[in-house]
Design a protein that fits this description.
The chain has helices at 13-25, 36-45, 62-72, 89-98, 110-158, 206-225, 240-252, 331-334, 345-355, 361-377; strands spanning 5-9, 29-33, 50-54, 79-84, 102-105, 164-166, 169-176, 184-191, 194-202, 262-270, 275-281, 287-289, 295-297, 316-319, 325-329, 390-397. By secondary structure, the protein is an alpha+beta fold. The protein folds into two domains: 5-133, Rossmann fold; 159-397, 4-Layer Sandwich (Phosphatase 2c, domain 1), CATH 3.60.40. Helix 2 runs parallel beside helix 3. The longest helix is centred in the middle third of the chain and has 49 residues, at 110-158.
Length: 402
């Protein structure tokens, strides 16, 4: 244990020097002050760890000194012992409330003073150990936060650009992670004379779900550029149901990098005709909104991907007419609860997108995101975090004035 620096605060010069001589003989580093104001100046300039202060002093008494030391903190813990002739328990309570750690009755017994100083040294040692551990934890937390920020940037880089256009098709999206990183991921991409799209929602939250979502995104990238399982042997666009089946086999295999399951929708749209097919694997049922606000759903359910091998899925056909919007979303929207635990629900989502059919996507989607945040947070000034990841991808076929 290092040598403790003790500050004696006592207006009686004789008593102060007596205590100082005693502590110096015991091996302590000692400073002296005649009142609380002088003591604070010393505390600002020197690394004092223990203060022995008289209760009754002119200019600034011991209680006020205790309060000031606790308020200023000085970057480290200071152990405070008050000297007093008071014996009323109420006075001791006042002293503890002011920040004192211990009391000694005047006149001071040498053996009792030495015991109290040893007790104070043990407390200071524990405080120093705790402070060092907290510093290491703070540094570790800072590093984790930096790593999570980097992971979030990487995940964001995988998402498509906002206000993306392919020929007569326009897409935009909302993405509100419940934490730094998300288990939701989606994309829109050209696939020869088709437009491919997928939406994925990995079970769970946080880093594990995010890693899984990136693994799925990588499969789609490889399926276009390397292994080309998004195409048939004749280089036609593969059936969405077959693509989902292939993914299920890979994520259920013994070689799967991450063990989890996920819901998804994968589909393709013929860029020339607007005719499309999609496969729904446990994901919420998407819907199409017409320019007039009519809504029709597209999908037939299906099991999530990665639960069991050898599952099969079906696909459904749809047609996207000029001006219509295909809306794909995660259950983070429909299951978003307000402060009274009421879920947002699919009906509200459909109604919002119906009512906004006359607006452009770059106007509608930011407004909806703010509406959902207000739904979640209510009248609170602080925004409440989403309980689940939120994603909404809208693909619009243009070609006619809306």
């Amino acid at each position: 244990m290092s040598v403790q620096h003790v500050l004696i605060v006592e207006d009686s010069l004789v008593y102060r020097r007596l205590l100082s001589r005693m502590l110096t003989q015991w091996g302590y580093i000692v400073s002296e002050a005649e009142n609380g104001i002088a003591a604070l100046d010393i505390l600002e300039a020197q690394p004092v760890s223990l203060v022995i202060s008289d209760w009754e002093m002119p200019e600034m008494d011991g209680l006020t000194l205790c309060r000031e030391i606790r308020r200023r903190q000085f970057g480290h813990y200071v152990y405070l012992i008050l000297l007093t002739a008071r014996e009323d328990p109420g006075d001791l309570t006042v002293g503890f409330d002011a920040g004192a750690d211990d009391f000694l009755s005047k006149p001071v017994e040498q053996s009792e003073l030495r015991a109290r100083l040893h007790a104070g040294a043990r407390v200071l040692s524990l405080e120093a150990t705790l402070a060092a551990r907290n510093a290491r934890l703070s540094e570790a937390l800072r590093q984790i936060e930096q790593d999570l920020e980097a992971a979030a940037r990487i995940q964001q880089s995988v998402l498509p650009a906002h206000q993306l256009r392919y020929r007569d098709y326009f897409s935009d999206w909302i993405f509100l992670p419940s934490a730094w990183v998300s288990g939701d991921i989606f994309n829109v991409f050209p696939l020869d004379n088709h437009l491919g799209f997928y939406c994925v929602d990995v079970s769970g939250h946080g880093v594990g779900a995010a890693m899984m979502s990136l693994a799925v995104a990588r499969q789609f990238l490889h399926g276009r550029a390397v292994e080309r399982f998004l195409f048939t042997a004749d280089n036609d666009v593969a059936s969405p149901a077959e693509v989902v089946r292939i993914l299920n086999g890979r994520f259920c295999s013994d070689e799967a990098e991450i063990v989890s399951y996920f819901t998804m929708i994968y589909g393709v749209i013929d860029l020339a005709t607007g005719k499309g097919k999609l496969c729904q694997a446990g994901h919420p049922t998407p819907f199409i909104v017409s320019p007039g606000g009519e809504v029709r759903t597209v999908g037939e359910g299906g099991a999530p991907v990665g639960l069991m091998p050898d599952l099969c899925w079906t696909e459904v056909s749809f047609s996207l007419a000029p001006g219509e919007r295909l809306c794909l979303f995660s259950d983070g929207i429909t299951e978003c609860e307000n402060l009274t635990d009421e879920q947002f629900g699919q009906a509200r989502l459909q109604r919002w997108l119906q009512d906004g059919a006359i607006l452009s996507l770059d106007q509608l989607l930011p407004q909806f995101a703010q509406h959902l945040i207000r739904w979640r947070s209510g009248e609170r000034q602080e925004q409440q975090p989403m309980a689940d990841d939120v994603s909404l991808l809208v693909i619009e076929r243009t070609g006619e004035e809306r």
